[in-house]
UniProtKB/TrEMBL annotation:
Transmembrane segments: none annotated. Residues 415-446 are annotated as: Disordered. PROSITE patterns: EAL, GGDEF. It comes from Pontixanthobacter aestiaquae. InterPro entries: Biofilm_reg_signaling, EAL_dom, EAL_sf, GGDEF_dom, Nucleotide_cyclase, Rev_trsase/Diguanyl_cyclase. Residues 169-418 form the EAL domain. Residues 436-446 have a biased composition (Basic and acidic residues). Residues 26-160 form the GGDEF domain. This is EAL domain-containing protein.
């Protein structure tokens, strides 16, 4: 029983072979492989290119497995490998890591070079633990999604607590859907000040979830789940729309809104952005969209296309969390950011680490050479503020001046803030400060 496109054995064939191995009491390891970004390849280049990519991936899979393991196409962009024997765990994991390395290289198709990756989940049976082929594949599937949530392009072995975590994730997904309907999300704002005058020049929007039971849930908890479920688009649009409404009368200062990788990959997002600007009457020139390096690295072609459309409205684009990822000079020139935001870790640790200080200084010099403004975020002390100010940063953001605050407090702070007098963190309400995130691309709230 063979899959007609890839010519690999299919799902039914795999179950039959595994059942035979288990019936003999063989030790067995199974890997489930899901291609990352395959849907976008189909959307961008058409199904003919997608089909050719499946064929090329099948060839790579065969080469990686050799004669030691069996590979299958389960359907869509899912493949599987199983291996029997006492060392099957170790050998199969090594194969999968080799497979990820191969898939991390671009694949030539019809004069294009397609970048694709994969996420791998692994499971194991001793042959005497009562597990059947369906349960083995289910466990590998659960582990694969853990790999995806962990950043993709990795292998993860199934653990018993994954099932408990999965139930909690499903529960939170349902709660998030209800929260959108019940208006449980709020947007707070953290001001950015001019490095020289200390006047407020912008605010950054940060989402908060105040549940009806009185509990507050940090974005580091619910944003990864929203990204996985697809709710991030709805939540992100809520933040963007609400922020534009709130900031409409705030003395012409800039508004900075974070955009997730999933939003940027959505071909409808530029259209939705234009509709929100028209609906709210917010000036496009006052809006800054913050994106992380990860958003761009995942699919630079789609990102560049979306950013060109976004800039067509007059919106500025900011590279957030610089210093934690992959950006190079060529990368910065390609995407032509209007502003660079230095990651908090680079700012906070530069005072005590000469190599980090040198990195920060070179980053600022590079940004200035490329005509970008520079913001230092996470500034908490006067010493840090003096350091980034003398290094050439244009704007400063951090608890030294302001914590995040609800919109009703922003107008008061804007009118009360006198030039050259920083408004210290004791002016903000307790408990509203930004919460630490799990990954750089998830630190922000939209």
């Amino acid at each position: 029983m063979t899959d007609s496109l890839s010519t690999l054995p299919n799902r039914r064939s795999m179950h039959g072979e595994i059942r035979g191995k288990i019936s003999r009491g063989d030790e067995l390891a199974v890997a489930l492989i899901d291609l990352d970004g395959f849907k976008m390849v189909n959307d961008l280049y058409g199904h003919a290119v997608g089909d050719e990519l499946i064929k090329k991936c099948a060839v790579i899979l065969r080469e990686v497995c050799g004669g030691d393991a069996r590979c299958f196409r389960l359907g869509g962009d899912e493949f599987a490998i199983y291996m029997a024997g006492p060392l099957s765990n170790t050998i199969l994991e090594g194969m999968c890591r080799g497979l990820l390395e191969r898939l991390g290289q671009s694949i030539p198709i019809e004069e294009r070079r397609i970048a694709i990756g994969a996420s791998v989940g692994l499971s194991h049976t001793s042959g005497s633990d009562g597990l059947d082929s369906s349960e083995l594949l289910r466990r590998a599937d659960v582990a694969m999604y853990v790999s995806k949530r962990g950043g993709k392009m990795r292998c993860t072995w199934f653990k018993a607590d994954f099932d408990r975590n999965l139930e909690a994730i499903r529960d939170m997904d349902e709660e998030l859907r209800a929260a959108l309907l019940n208006d449980e999300f709020r947007v707070n704002y953290q001001p950015l000040v001019d490095a020289k005058t200390r006047e407020v020049v912008a605010v950054e929007s940060l989402i908060r979830w105040h549940r009806r039971d009185g509990k507050n849930v940090g974005p580091n908890v619910f944003i990864p789940i929203a990204e996985e479920s697809g709710l991030i688009n709805s939540i992100g649009l809520f933040v963007l729309r609400q922020s534009c409404k709130d900031a409409l009368g705030w003395n012409g200062i800039k508004l900075s809104v974070n955009i997730s990788a999933a939003q940027l990959r959505n071909p409808e997002f530029p259209i939705q952005l234009g509709q929100i600007l028209e609906e709210t009457g917010f000036e496009a020139e006052r809006l800054e969209l913050e994106i992380t390096e990860t958003c761009l690295v995942l699919d630079p072609v789609v990102a560049e296309r979306s950013l060109d459309l976004i800039r067509g409205f007059g919106v500025n684009v900011v590279l957030d969390d610089f210093g934690t990822g992959y950006a190079s000079i060529g990368f910065l020139r390609q995407f032509r950011f209007e502003k660079l935001k230095l990651d908090r870790s680079l700012v906070v640790d530069s005072a005590d680490d000469e190599s980090l200080r040198a990195m920060m200084l070179s980053s600022i010099s590079m940004a200035q050479a490329l005509k970008m403004n520079v913001t230092a975020e996470g500034v908490e002390t006067e010493a840090q503020a003096d350091l980034v100010r003398s290094a050439g940063c244009d704007q400063i953001q951090g608890w030294l001046y302001f914590k995040a605050m609800p919109p009703e407090d922003i107008a008061q702070h804007l009118s009360a803030l006198a030039p050259n007098e920083p408004n210290k963190q004791n002016s903000a309400e307790p408990g509203l400060e930004p919460q630490p995130e799990l990954r750089p691309e998830q630190r922000k709230a939209s």
